[in-house]
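pls read this protein.

:::
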Amino acid sequence: MENPSSSSSASVATSAAASASDADPGAPVREALASLARRYQHLLDRSTPFVRERWFGLFGLALLYLLRVWLIEGFYIVTYGLGIYSLGQLVAFLSPMVDPEIQELIDGSAPSLPTRSTDEFRPFVRRLPEFKFWHALARAFCIAFVMTFFSVFDVPVFWPILLFYFCVLFFVTMKRQVQHMIKYKYVPFSFGKQRYGGKRGSATEDVSLMKD
């Protein structure tokens, strides 16, 4: 026989949930969006170690976007905005976390990377890490690709002028960045740099200690 108290409590809970959903009709939507955000973040976390695969995927996405713009012959202003945004992200990727020029203005001393083997090891820390740089570009290309399906964003413009402006801006920005790198003696890439094996060094030290 069913307990009347349990049935009454269940009906009260059901009515309370119904009243809560009626009071806040946007709660299911927020829960669905939060679930999608957690799933998206989980996929991003899993893709972190696959550096080469991520950049190959971004290169394919960029080719797909450029192919669509070339075929439909439009959305040049969207492409120009995408190029300006990508250039800003590239500058942040090539810049150190602490700008030595600003540090020099503040206290008169700029932090520099080691130039001799006896100097203290100070790794290059980027203002924009590699994963965030890739994610920002991938998101920008996806947004720009979606924008090409809406004619409201297809603003008539003479595209050679935009291309000329972008080339000049890219040249001036990269020239300034290279001059900054030469002035403060830092290289934002690890290609060609000497690598040190921590395990091999520790094993050598253990052997030398045993001999002593």
User: Anything to note?
Assistant: The chain has eight helices and no strands. The first helix runs from residue 4 to 23. The two ends are 85 Å apart (CA to CA).
